[in-house]
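Input chain follows. Return structure tokens only.
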Amino acid sequence: MVQEVTPFLMFEKDAEKAINFYVSVFKDAKIESIEHWSKDEAGKENTVKRAYFSIGNQGFIALDSPVKHDFSFTPSLSIFVDCSSEEEQSNVFDALSEGGETLMPLRDWGFSKRFAWINDRFGVSWQLNLPF
């Protein structure tokens, strides 16, 4: 039996910047805890060893990997956000798309009032939905 499922975001050096950014974008987000790599550990000193943060009721884990990988984030797995208003959706879209890449611009695509899909400046993929 699965006890809990938590999205895990692996960065290589920007985990703390990303977490602080996400907490500034979403009004109901907060950092639960951040632990940093120390001098004699596997990761680069003062980068994120393990962090917990939440957006609404959804918890996330993030870290700066001590191992260099030949892969990063992909839009085939994205964070889906149901926004509560057009204003909130526009604000989140503007913030997350700055320095990122718009995969589907913010508009009516027929399956919701408004929808957008973007990769943010850290490479994390977000779907922003305004439900009917």
